[in-house]
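ok trying this again, last paste got cut off
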Amino acid sequence: MLRDEDKKQIKNQLDQMDQAVQLINFTQQVAGTCMYCRETETLLTEVAELSPLLMLNVSNFVTDKELVDSYGIDKIPATVVRADKDAGVRFYGIPSGYEFASFLQLILMLSKGNSNLPETIVSELKTIVKPVHIQVFVTPTCPYCTRAAMTAFQFAIENDNIKSDVVEVTEFPHLAQKYNVMGVPRIVINEEHVIEGAVPEQVFLDKIKTAVSES
C-alpha cells in the first residue's frame, strides 16, 4: 500500500524511536464482515517492517476472545498501540489519510515515553481520578482531525483513568447515527459531553473536567 518514497520518509521518522512499541491489530478476514480489515492489516504489516522496534500482533476478533475482552475491543478493524503498558489508546478503522500522521506520532510518543504536553496541562490531568472515555470521530480527509486525535491520545498517555478512541466514522455508520456525527472532528466524552471541531488543549481539558464533575 505504501509507495517506496513514503516508506523512506516513514522509516526516517521511526528511526527516532527509543523503545519497542507493539501494534495489536484485531481483524476478521471473512468476506463482508469488515470493510477495511484486510487493508488495515496490510498497512500495519508494511509499517512494522520499517523498524526493528515495531512489533505487529494480528488477532482474530471472533476466536481470540480473551484478548479482545482484555483490551475492550468492540468493533473492527481495531488497532491497539502500546509500549511497556497499555496506555488506553485505540484506532478504530484504517489509519489512513491525515490520520496516518496521528498514527505515526502516537508510535513515537509511546516509544519515547513523552506526551509532549505542557507541564501545566499535565498537572491538571493528574487531578482527574474518575474514568473518562473519549471518542474522537474523524475521516481520512479531515486536516483538523489530527489535532483532536493527538490531544486525546496525549491525555490518555498522561492519565491511566483516561481512555481515548479515534474512530474513522465512515467505516462505522451506525456510530455516526448514534452520536449525530454531522461533521468532524466530533469529540464525545463519557457519552454525553460533546466538542465540535479541534480545540486548544485547555478547552478540551476543561470539557473533560466538566464531564467528570457531572458523573
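PB: full thing came through this time. The two ends are 44 Å apart (CA to CA).
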